[in-house]
Amino acid sequence: MNDFFNAQVWENMWKEESDVKRASMKKHGIDPTRSFDSKAQTFDKQSFSREGKERARRIMGWLEGQGVSFDNATVLDIGAASGVFSVPFAEQGARVTAIETSPPLIELLKQNTSDFAEGQMQIVPSPFEEIDVTAMGWVKSFDLVFVSMCPVIHDWDSVEKLIQCARKFCYLSMPVVPPEHSLVKEVWPLVTDQPYPSKLTEMGYLLHLLYLKGYAYESLVTREGKSKEVSREAALQEVMTWLEHHHRLPMDERSYEIVSDYLAQTYPSDQIVIREEGRYGKVLIRLEDPSMYTRSN
User: Fold this and answer.
1) Which of 93, 97, 98, 99 is closest to 73 using CA atoms?
2) pTM of the model
3) Distance (Å, rounded) from C-alpha 145 to C-alpha 141?
4) Which residues of the chain are modeled with pLDDT < 50?
5) DSSP class of residue 117?
6) Number of neighbours of residue 134 by Cβ within 10 angstroms
7) Residue 1: per-residue pLDDT
């Protein structure tokens, strides 16, 4: 029981788990800084769709309800992608430093922010892990450090580096459980002979360490999802990609035939509805004013 209140034990457990995952990604040739290269156009389209814009508005509304103001604020947006949050931040009057490492996303980010005034948007094309925040003059330089669903958060040291850059607030979001794909869940027992696994992610380490280390913070967990209709062939390719990339299963001939036969028998029409969803955690760390905040109308 004493280990439950031992921050060093939790830091070590998080780092050990993270090291195993990162080693596995390296073994499979996955570079987190370039993982969105092939999906840049699709991601950009989704980000600035009506649904994508509404999601950004909901999160910004929650932040404003906790006392965050964007007007004339300085924001460090890490993992900015094509500007899904950087753009609305700037539209609300913030001066944004956007970090992104995927060249296709950087080009889209430049296009999406080209109309802003000079100096309002700075793009930094370097991994945050490689940036010396002291040399950059970033220590306590940003009113808000914002990190949404970015693998830069992988252990407590990475969290401390983020907090080091923040003057007032630091916002972090990550999955509570790995994202779920409706068809993958259906075919999983056929491919593996095992029930579909449900596993919690590092969100628990983050919340517990913030608690142990005395930070003031608000947290929120939501369940969110989206549906789409695709052809049977597109569904087959998507399921096989998920099995390989998300679950590290080989895309061998046996698995391909099992999934293909299942889709043909279960979905005789050529159109299949796929549901992707998950539980997502959001944390706002207060650095300047740790007291309770109630938004006045």
Assistant:
1) 93
2) 0.88
3) 9
4) 297
5) P
6) 9
7) 60
Whose tokens are 């401390």? That residue is: 160
How many whole angstroms separate alpha carbon 71 and alpha carbon 50?
23
Asked if 86 contacts 77 with a C-beta cutoff of 8 angstroms, the reply is: yes
Instruction: Give the Cα-Cα-Cα angle 104, 107, 111 (nearest 5 degrees).
Output: 140
Predicted pLDDT of residue 36: 78
Using one digit for the tens of pLDDT, what is the confidence trace for 177-232?
Answer: 888 999 999 999 999 999 998 788 889 999 999 999 999 999 999 998 888 899 99
What's the rounded Cα separation, in Å, for the pair 179 and 28?
19
Give pLDDT, residue 147: 98
**141 vs 138: CA distance, rounded Å:** 5
Helix (H, G, I), strand (E, B) or coil at 225: strand
Q: Phi, psi at residue 204, to the nearest 5°?
A: -65, -40
Q: How far apart are CA 146 and CA 68, in angstroms?
A: 12
Q: What is the DSSP-derived secondary structure letter of residue 86?
A: H
Q: Which of 161, 129, 148 has its CA nearest to residue 22?
A: 129
- Enumerate the β-bridge partners of residue 273: 229
Q: Given this model, what pLDDT does residue 294 score?
A: 66
**Residue 32, exposed/middle/buried by CB under 10 A (0-12, 13-18, 19+)?**
middle
The pairing of strands 142-148 and 121-124 is unpaired
Strands (E), the chain: 74-78, 95-99, 121-124, 142-148, 166-175, 180-181, 216-231, 271-286
